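Quick one: co-fold with PMT.
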Amino acid sequence: MPGPYADKEIVLGITGSIAAYKACELASRLVEGGATVRAVLTGAAQEFVGAASLEGITGNPAITSMFGQATNPEIEHIAVARWADLFLLAPASANLIAKAAQGIADDWLTTSLLATRAPLLFAPAMNMHMYAHPATQANIATLTERGAHFVGPDSGALACGDVGPGRLIDPAAILERVRVLLNPVHPLAGKRVLITSGANHEPVDPVRFIGNRSSGKMGRALALEALRQGAEVTVVTGPHEAPLPRDAQSIHVETAAEMLEAVEARWNDTDIFIAAAAVADYRVDRPMAEKHKRDGSVLTLTLVPNPDIARHVGLKKRADQISVGFAAETHDAVRNATDKLSRKNFDLVVANEVGVAESGFGTDTNKAWLVAPGMEAEELPLMTKDALAVRIFARILTAVTASPDPSPVHGASR
Ligand code: PMT
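Sure, here it is.
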């Protein structure tokens, strides 16, 4: 029986990491699954794993340097870059990710990454502080914007003694993504996903506002996952720092009232609504028309409640629409989420812990529970926002499949 990677040609790029030995398992399982694998080891990778092992496993010469093999045109970088169905970079170091993001081509692997048009799948592995560093995050964002894919990293004890995100994700999860990328299925093709994301800025005067710390990272992760599953994605975003995927339609707003208006305008054409924005619960009653001058006296602002966007649309939700909310909680996460489930007519609430390290506002990771009607709350471990988005969409897919109208027709009348 043909394996899941039958007739596929995969370049396995290995960089210097304590996890490099796991590349042998990856290579072995890819070959077992029918793939032709060409291993490429950077100089640093060769300090951790031997080219001979990978040659034995793949049955192909491993590539270890730019020069010296030019007599065989098959292993020249351009030839391989053309031949590949996928470049799998596992483990992918911070250095490789940085070079790929900047277009640096100073060895065989980075040169062929520039030359190939094949999909790129990075499985990062590095120290948690290196992973969290704004430079690494910006490089990952740049590559993602350009269409590269990332799987992991996992969170846990690292070789250096730190505990946090940075561990190479389990090879089974990497192989699952390889399978999906080589045989893309789009279970949400034809579905329209509407996501609110980011913060709100409620004006005090023309130069000041009341805001919050949402970065838009959670909304971005959700948008990327929805796109990966083939959906048409619109993000109504307040001010944010995380870049939004180019393939999503982005609607930029400032205030909660503007966000409500943008959501309402698209509500009838929405199949799946996800409220990830940190909507401002209050606004200044009468923002000042001119810049307030400091005169030493106490300034009192009157705040009035903003509309609740999720509740507003939840009350008119049709049976074929799915609505997912977030609950940002410092305590009693599941109880508060259960309350929001019914109050805002959500089908699923992602209760995330805020006010704790590595979870909630501005972080790359989140600690959450999935709370749905009639089911026991599912507690998830601390994971990257990308991984959480995958878990959320797995639940959404189950609900879509069970929906009374599994493939609604879009039209002006809806
Ligand atoms: O953007 P990041 O830095 O990545 O951070 C992500 C996040 C912490 C902002 C996100 O994961 C999150 O929890 N978003 C919801 C924050 C929030 O406003 O929670 P809440 O418990 O106050 O609101 C419950 C739900 O109602 C949310 O889905 C919210 O979007 C929605 N809501 C709230 C108030 C309001 N006026 N209108 C709403 O639609």
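If it helps, The mean pLDDT is 90.
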